[in-house]
Amino acid sequence: MSFDMFVLRYVAGEPAPLDRDVLDEVLGPYVAARDPAVDLLQLRVGERGGADVWLRETSLTLNHVAGQGALDLVCALLRRLGAVLALPGGTVVLYRDEDRERLPPELRDAAVLVVATTGAELGRAIRES
Q1: Structure confidence by residue, pLDDT tens digits, 48-80
Q2: pTM (2 decimals)?
């Protein structure tokens, strides 16, 4: 998938930092290349899967996400970080339904909210967005 998706974490409706220790723990085994100058990680998941990940304090930008394993990895990130995934077109993917209460009111009210706990569910949400 060659469009941008954003992993975001909110606390009481405000953007919150992503836990770098959790990021390292979840993503570390899949890092095939790093470019620290632009905070880019290139992930390889399985034989044909992977993603490009740009790290920011309060977000991750994902691009070129390929393969079921990469989608499962994104779900693991959402679960471990207590984060959501913003898709193009206004869909926001939650790992838990109760995560909607953390979102800013304007996002909670305007976005299409979808719960996905597996890579298969996430893939369906992306195709339908």
Answers
A1: 899 999 999 999 999 999 999 999 999 999 999
A2: 0.93
CB atoms within 10 A of CB 60: 24
Residues whose CB falls within 8 Å of the CB of residue 97, separated by 6 or more in sequence, listed in order: 115
The residues, any chain, with a CB within 8 Å of residue 109's CB and separated by 6 or more, are none
**CA nearest 83: which of 68, 66, 100?**
100
Q: CA triplet 40, 41, 44: central angle to 5 degrees?
A: 150
The alpha-carbon radius of gyration of the chain (Å, integer) is: 14
Could you say which DSSP state residue 71 is in?
A: H
For residue 9, how far is the Cα from the chain centroid? 10
Alpha-carbon dihedral sign for residues 70, 72, 73, 74: positive
